Amino acid sequence: MPQPASLPAAATPEQAARGFFSEYGSLFGVTNQAKQLSTLRTMTAADGRSFVRFQQVHNGVPVMGGELIVQVAAQGNGILSASGETVAGEALSTTPAVASGSARETALAMAAKYYATGVSDLRCSRPSLWVYNPSVLGIDRDQSSLVWRMDVRSANGQPVRELVLVDAQRGFVALHFSQIDTAKSRQVYNASCGSTLPGTLARSEGQGATGNTNVDKAYTYS
Q1: Taking a C-beta distance cutoff of 8 angstroms, is the pair 98, 166 a contact?
Q2: For the segment 81-120, what is each residue's pLDDT rounded down to a tens digit?
Q3: What is the 3 state secondary structure string of 6-68?
Q4: Alpha-carbon span 148 to 206, nearest angstrom
Q5: pLDDT (tens digit, 9 = 90+) per residue, 37-54?
Q6: CB of 57 within 8 A of CB of 39?
Q7: Is the pTM for the entire model greater than 0.70?
Q8: Residue 56 to residues 36, 85, 130, 144, 153: CA-CA distances in angstroms?
């Protein structure tokens, strides 16, 4: 897609990506790219293409799972692709009713009970405000909420690394899950270049290489 006419010829990849969202952002739920998108990083490939990753923010608060990636052609010659996901939250207040210290205590108490250990055996990262919408995780509930986000880890080497979200208005645990990557249950399907999904199960957890390069790479990289 060509760059907007208002964009200077020597625009940086970020400027080009933001110019794209100024023009087409409504297709992605972005009505004001300057306020709603924060640049995470820009990477440039050997052939000159650039990839700009944006974090969606609401009143300066990051949105969990709300990220957009734009692929910019070499030498600024247009936009090759744009993908990602955003969530609604324009009416959401970003002023918490629950203090960060209280949210931290809730997270530690939950993790201690879940892992059958003492609170003194756990450590918790500094709580930070995020916007959370279950629909990003495939849960059938499209409702954004303000949460305190924390990582709870073991202080004595136990396998505990729990991401915990505590509702910043009502104080309950909105979501928690382990971030330890040893608990894998991968399943790779092959649609054989068709459009009927999910296709045929080609490789599941614990199974050896199939010989199909794409299937085996999908398995390895997931």
Answers
A1: yes
A2: 999 999 876 688 999 999 999 999 999 999 999 999 999 9
A3: CCCCCCCHHHHHHHHHHHHHHHHCCCCHHHHEEEEEEEECCCCCEEEEEEEEECCEEEEEEEE
A4: 36
A5: 999 999 999 999 999 999
A6: no
A7: yes
A8: 6, 9, 11, 13, 27
